[in-house]
Structures are given as C-alpha cells and as structure tokens.
Design brief:
255 residues; Four Helix Bundle (Hemerythrin (Met), subunit A); two-stranded antiparallel sheet
C-alpha cells in the first residue's frame, strides 16, 4: 500500500488522487505566506501600493481555498493535517499583523499613536481568532472579524486623515466584542448572487484604484468611476450587516 493510500493512519485505503488533491489544497493555502512575505518586503521598501496588492493576492487565496477544501474533502483525505489552523495562522499574519505594521510604517494615525494603534489591533484581533463562536448559524461573523487588511485599504482609497483613522481603529476594536453581524460574501445564502456580483465589482474597482493611483495622484482622482464603484459596494456591505443585525434584535432567537 502506498503512503498516499495509507494517509490518515486508520488503515483504510484512500485513493491516491484524492489524497494528492487534498494536499494540493493545503499547499495552495500555504502559498498565502509567500504573498505575506512579499507584502512585508514591500512594506520595508516603503511601497504601500505594492504591499496592498500583495495583501489583495493573499485575500484571493483565502477566498478560494475554503471552497476548494470542501470540494476535495481535505479533512477526509488528509486528516493528519489541520488546514483550519494553517488558515488561521496565515490569516492572522495577512489580516492583522501586516496591516497593523502598514498603519505604523506609513503614518496613518497621528504622531505618537503608531505603536499603540498597532498593538491595539493585534491584541483585539486575538479575541476574534480565538473565539469559538466567531461564526453564526447563518454564516455571518459575530463581532468585527479582524479584517484590518480591508480597513487599511479603505484608509488608502478614501484618503481619510490620521484622526479619523485612529477613531475608526478604536471603534472597530471595540466592535470585535459586540455581536454585530458582518457578512461573509461567499457563505451567506441571503442575496448571495447579488452579494457575489457586488464583491466582484468591489474587487475589480479596488485593484484598479490601487494600480492607477500613486504619489500625487490619489485614488479618487486616478479613476473617479472606480472610486464611486468602490464606495457604493462598500456601502452595500455595511447596509447588509446593519440590516441583518437589526433583524436579529427584532426577532431574538430566530434565524
């Protein structure tokens, strides 16, 4: 019996192709650490736009690896390796640590607040990543899901000032502990086709804005149409989250 057929250690045979597919998905997830390294390299080089693009690549990997893992049944065909833990390790790096460093490195908060803001982000995010009830029964996130990569991106695209950024960081850190619902665009079934379409528009608009902008050319001027698309899509997500949270308040205990 080959090693692939013995994978899992329970003596049962598993098709080598299925085992290989499961490990290929794990490798795909692990590739997120490479994009994280490249984002750090861009950060050190002082290139905010490139760092954001690499974080965007990491976000794409994270968006696709979950459905892929469920499709090939990684827990069944590669049970000795915990892909969920791997995913959390990489997510903490790309969703929290690197964005916190970007905020510090590029002075997105008032002078003297860089280290406290970064420390606050990293500390509050630990609760999110350790929270066993982070996901609700209808696949929303409960509490701010530590998506600081998206927040840093918003700071850049919207061109918000240091004090606004600091206030936003404080508010979102507090909301980590508040059961406000945040949508998972791929897993929430309500309005899924519309949400997926808006997500695609948001992603393309964001990529275009980061790519076209630069020193002396803010995103809003680089492509006004893409900037308004980004803003409208972002407001859609906020509206869905507020609506779903309000619905729970009106009908406690009901899905």
């Amino acid at each position: 019996m080959s090693e692939a057929e013995r994978e899992g250690g329970d003596g049962g045979k598993r098709p080598a192709a299925r085992v290989a597919a499961a490990w290929a998905v794990h490798a795909f997830t692990a590739s997120g650490v490479v994009t994280a390294l490249l984002a750090i390299a861009a950060l050190i080089a002082g290139d905010l736009r490139l760092a954001l693009l690499w974080l965007g690549a990491a976000l794409l990997i994270d968006g696709f690896d979950g459905p892929m893992a469920r499709k090939v049944k990684v827990s069944e065909y590669a049970p000795r390796f915990d892909g969920a833990v791997l995913d959390l390790v990489i997510d903490y790096l790309t969703y929290t640590v690197i964005p916190a460093l970007l905020i510090y490195r590029f002075g997105m908060v008032p002078d003297g607040w860089g280290i406290p803001a970064a420390a606050f982000i990293m500390t509050t995010s630990l609760y999110c990543f350790g929270n066993r009830e982070m996901k609700t029964h209808d696949n929303y996130f409960s509490g701010f899901p530590a998506t600081w990569n998206l927040i840093v991106l918003c700071f850049y695209v919207l061109g918000t000032g240091p004090w606004v950024n600091l206030a936003t960081i404080a508010l979102l850190g507090i909301l980590t502990f508040v059961p406000f619902k945040y949508i998972h665009p791929f897993r929430v079934t309500t309005l899924r086709p519309l949400t997926l379409a808006v997500t695609a528009l948001w992603a393309f608009a964001t990529f275009w804005l980061v790519l076209r902008s630069g020193p002396g050319l803010p995103p809003a001027e680089a492509s006004p149409a893409a900037w308004w698309t980004f803003l409208a899509a972002s407001l859609y997500f906020l509206a869905i989250c507020a609506w779903r949270t309000a619905k729970d308040r009106e009908r406690p205990g009901k899905p």
